[in-house]
Amino acid sequence: MLEDNKQANYGRLKDTEGVALALSPSVCLSRSASIQGLVPVVDSQNNPLQPCKPSVAERLIKKGKATGFFKKGFFAIRIKKTVEKPNRSLIVVAIDPGSKRTGITVTTDTEVIVNIQCNTPDWVKGKMETRLMYRRARRQRNTPYRKCRSNRAIGNIPPSTKARWDAHLRIIDVLSKILPVTDIVIEDIQAITKKHQKKWNRSFSPLEIGKQWFKKEVENRGFEYTKFQGFETKTHRDIREFKKTSKKLSEVWEAHCVDSHCLAEMLTTYIEPVKQITILNFLQFNRRELHQGYQKGKIRKLYGSTKSMGFNRGTLIKHTKYGLTQVGGTSQKRLCQNAKIQNCKILTNLSWRTAIPPMTKVVGLLAGCLL
User: Fold this and answer.
1) What is the distance, to the nearest Å, from the Cα of residue 194 to the centroid of all Cα atoms in its chain?
2) Contact 313/327 with Cβ under 8 angstroms?
3) Domains identified in the chain and CATH numbers
4) How far is CA 153 from the centre of its chain?
5) Nearest to 58 by CA among 77, 80, 45, 43
6) Residue 54: predicted pLDDT
7) Is residue 140 predicted with pLDDT exceeding 80?
8) Whole-angstrom Cα distance, residue 321 to residue 336?
9) What is the pLDDT of residues 92-108, one digit of tens each?
10) Closest-CA residue to 210 (of 172, 173, 162, 171)
11) How many CB atoms lie within 10 A of CB 19?
12) What torsion do the CA atoms of 19, 23, 25, 29 make, to the nearest 10 degrees?
């Protein structure tokens, strides 16, 4: 049985807005996969290949045979040649869904590539209720309003449920562009139905609908879909003697990624765990709000539309004077209003922010090769 790795305290490398757009120092000089996972690799035609170790990626970049880049916050390298017949093996994306946080572990059949802990877009239900309140208020006044019609969510997946499961698909779609993903493993969530309790059964029906919708979408993408029960994950965790913390919102491997790691092992074999995780937070966008209030101290509430200066909110931009900035948000490194559009270079459109919490103290050289 493999022994757990001991953690050490260390700082982190981050940009001015608190998002790890450059590699963490621990990523740069890690020689052992037990400290840092593998690095995704693509060829010159952006076809995903088998991932390599960080030491191999650093050596290829130094020799000029590859270049590093970020794909929606995930680091990968691009080799300067085309591979016609690549050697590919099993690439598993294991998902442990939760109500507030979700753990995702991506592995090969022998090593861990990356651990992800993300939040869930649980604000959709509240927005739908607010929109319903505004529409009902307008129907009581002598103003134009939308004609009453049947609920389009009946017989289909509700918006709040779709947002939760669609968040997992968005991460899978990004990972599949830099990794040759083959299998999706998820911990099954079962809802027990009860006789003569319509309210109880109806409250769990969106969960079942969401599970079936997610399975169908995964299979349509050509991935193998496997699910395990919660008690099976618990049994495997006890066998491996992994400890799980009761603090579900903490940014540590033992919170959620421990279960996603066990799910990956249940499909493959025993894999040495990687305790480093990537924190992924989905952004909230306000399309339109007509009523705005004030917080304490006469401070106007945070508000913004989906566009600013013609750019979509969340877009990562490189300005000739201000450097790396983002559109919207409350960070100090956001695009100012007096910036000229011709001086902006669009890098990518981000709907989430990624960061690497501190774990090991080492000095890195790979990040210097990229920037």
Assistant:
1) 35
2) yes
3) 25-123+155-283+352-370 (3.30.420.10), 294-349 (no CATH)
4) 26
5) 77
6) 92
7) no
8) 11
9) 999 999 888 999 999 99
10) 162
11) 22
12) 170
What is the rounded distance in angstroms from the CA atom of residue 52 to the CA atom of residue 68? 13
Coil/strand/helix, residue 75:
strand
Burial of 243 from C-beta contacts in 10 A (0-12 / 13-18 / 19+): exposed
Question: Measured at the alpha carbon of residue 12, what is the angle toward residues 254 and 15, in degrees to the nearest 5?
Answer: 125
pLDDT score of 3 more than 80:
no
Q: Contact, 171 vs 116, CB < 8 A?
A: yes
Q: Measured between alpha carbons, how far is 311 from 245 in angstroms, rounded to an integer? A: 41
Q: Which tokens is 356 given?
A: 């690497």
pLDDT of amino acid 226 = 93
Residue 256 contacts residue 117 (beta carbons within 8 Å): yes
Output the CA torsion sign for 313, 318, 320, 321.
positive
Angle at 218 between CA 215 and CA 220, to 5 degrees: 110
Model confidence, pTM: 0.77
Helix 257-267, helix 230-240: angle, nearest 10: 90
pLDDT 10s digits, 35-63: 578 999 999 999 999 999 999 999 999 99
The CA distance from 248 to 343, in Å, is 43
115 or 310, greater pLDDT? 115
In order of 45, 111, 256, the CA distances from 98 in angstroms are 36, 24, 8
Kindly report the average pLDDT of the chain as a whole number: 78
Q: Copy the structure tokens of residue 259.
A: 């279960």
| Residues 362/53, Cβ–Cβ less than 8 Å | no
